[in-house]
Amino acid sequence: MKPSDQFLKLVEWSEEDQCYVGTCPGLMLGGIHGRNEAQVYKELCQAVDEWIKIQGEDQEPLPKATAKGSYSGKFVVRMDKSLHQALTVAALREGKSLNTYCVSQLQRAVRGRSVKQRSSTGGRSGSKRKSR
User: Fold this and answer.
1) How far is residue 118's CA from residue 60's CA, in Å, rounded to a whole number?
2) CA separation for the pair 52, 56 (Å, rounded)
3) Domain span at residue 83?
4) Strands 10-14 and 32-34: what pairing?
5) Contact (CB, 8 A) for 19 and 32
6) pLDDT tens per residue across span 16-53
């Protein structure tokens, strides 16, 4: 395994920039831009490798790995009291616990974002579909 395999690399279509943008959150600022998704990913991988090499030469420690991490399934969210109340009321209306309601809303928001990203990239999501 290469040191760069420890870090999540993302390539997403940017409506604002009208191109693909590759980033490596938590490791380096900025990103790689381009019209070809595969080329952006290739250049991003090269940039991450170079970044890690420079960190080593400068004897700087690498940040915590972001790929294939283990997650506890728990995190704390701080919010305004009025939002807490509104979420509680909404959960009660649906007959759910506050936790179950919030998890379902988060899942819906994340799935909606994934669907929106795929549709903005012409349906490309990295998986192959069987044609009918």
Assistant:
1) 37
2) 6
3) 71-123
4) unpaired
5) no
6) 999 999 999 888 888 899 999 999 999 999 999 999 99
In a domain? residue 129? no
Residues 48 and 41: their CA atoms lie apart, in Å, by: 10
Read off the pTM.
Answer: 0.59
Taking phi over 0 as left and psi of -120 to 50 as alpha, with beta for the rest, 64 belongs to beta
Residues 51 and 115 in one domain: no
Distance CA 12, CA 118 (A): 9
Instruction: Give the number of domains in the chain.
Output: 2
Question: Taking the chain (132 residues) in consecutive chunks of 10 residues, what is each chunk's mean pLDDT?
Answer: 90 94 88 95 95 94 83 89 94 92 93 59 40 37
**Alpha-carbon span 62 to 80, nearest angstrom:** 35
The first and second tokens of residue 44, run together, are 């991003």
Spatial separation of the C-alpha atoms in residues 18 and 12, rounded to whole Å: 11
Tokens 């919030």 correspond to 102
